[in-house]
Write a structure and sequence with these properties.
The chain has one helix at residues 239-266, and strands at residues 4-5, 8-9, 15-18, 24-39, 42-68, 73-75, 78-98, 106-117, 120-132, 139-147, 156-165, 171-179, 182-191, 195-204, 208-218, 225-234. The strands form three sheets. Strands 1, 2, 3, 4, 5, 6, 7, 8 and 9 form a nine-stranded antiparallel sheet that branches. The chain is mainly β. The chain folds into two domains: 4-132, Immunoglobulin-like, CATH 2.60.40; 139-238, Immunoglobulins (Immunoglobulin-like, Sandwich), CATH 2.60.40. It contains one helix and 16 strands. It starts with a strand and ends with a helix. The protein is 10% helix and 63% strand.
Length: 267
């Protein structure tokens, strides 16, 4: 599973611009909120931003250029705000795509620009924000087996599976055995990225039809949960019952043999 993730973003600083007449034009490009998620191994992010301006006169055209440090794309990479006048706020979005980021990697978003007011114009020095890409959590449960496959009452059933950490960082994982929704056994393991471990949990069998589930939960993320289930039928007669039946049959056979021998001697 590749779930939603929080992106830690530093706010952009204000930009003060001076035209040739020394009239102050104040503009502020800022990040209001962010939303990020993994798609397979890649990371996508939406930045909800605003262009805030005050006391802009005369009408001014602004162009902002967005660049991302490191591997990744940002669209649109240019934002145009034409005919800006007075004071106000304009919301907009930036979409970021980062292929296969490493764990807790950091990228820098840089913004530069230009402004044009009639015959006057100039460049905007620029600001930057730190974007922290969170760790990706992904668990996998496979190799699900039960022994014995046809258990009887009071048998100790071993339920085994391979737990794999497919994420890009170390993860602590709780592995639980559930029988009909109730936890009957559990273990906690810690796996490095791209590693796996074979786990065996046990259950004292009870007669009837049961739903057997192995559930792996990431302690680190708190959200990544993977379950694998199967149905299991447990017989009514235990191994001790079979032994008692065997002893009883032996006694019956011996008694029958003794009676047969005694009857032949009487003849």
């Amino acid at each position: 599973m590749r779930g939603l993730a929080i992106v830690v973003v530093a706010m952009l600083t204000s930009i003060s611009i001076f035209n040739n007449n020394a009239a102050a034009l104040t503009a502020d490009v800022q990040i209001n909120s962010s939303h990020g998620w993994y798609e397979d191994d890649d990371y996508r992010m939406i930045l909800n931003m605003s262009f805030v301006y005050e006391n802009i006169f005369p009408p001014t055209d602004f162009t902002f250029y967005f660049t991302l440090e490191g591997d990744g794309d940002i669209t649109p990479d240019t934002q145009y705000f034409n005919g800006i006048y007075g004071s106000g706020e304009i919301p907009f979005q930036e979409n970021i795509y980062i292929p296969n980021p490493s764990r807790n990697s950091m990228y820098t978003l840089r913004i530069t620009g230009t402004w044009q007011a009639g015959a006057s114009g100039g460049t905007i020095g620029g600001s930057e924000a730190a974007l922290v890409i969170p760790q990706r959590y992904e668990l996998e449960v496979d190799g699900f087996t039960l022994f014995p496959e046809d258990p009887q009452k009071d048998d100790h059933v071993s339920v085994s599976a391979t737990i794999s950490n497919k994420g890009n960082g170390q993860d602590t994982i709780s592995v639980e055995l559930l029988v009909d929704g109730e936890v009957t056994d559990n273990k906690t393991i810690t796996l490095d990225e791209d590693s796996s471990s074979d786990i065996t949990l046990t259950w004292l069998a009870e007669p009837g039809d049961h739903n057997i589930t192995i559930r792996a939960t990431s302690h680190t993320s708190g959200a990544e949960i993977v379950e694998v289930s199967t149905l299991l039928k447990v017989g009514m007669i235990s191994s001790s019952d079979y032994a008692n039946i065997g002893i009883g049959l032996t006694i019956v056979v011996l008694l029958a043999a003794i009676i047969f021998i005694l009857r032949r001697r009487r003849r």
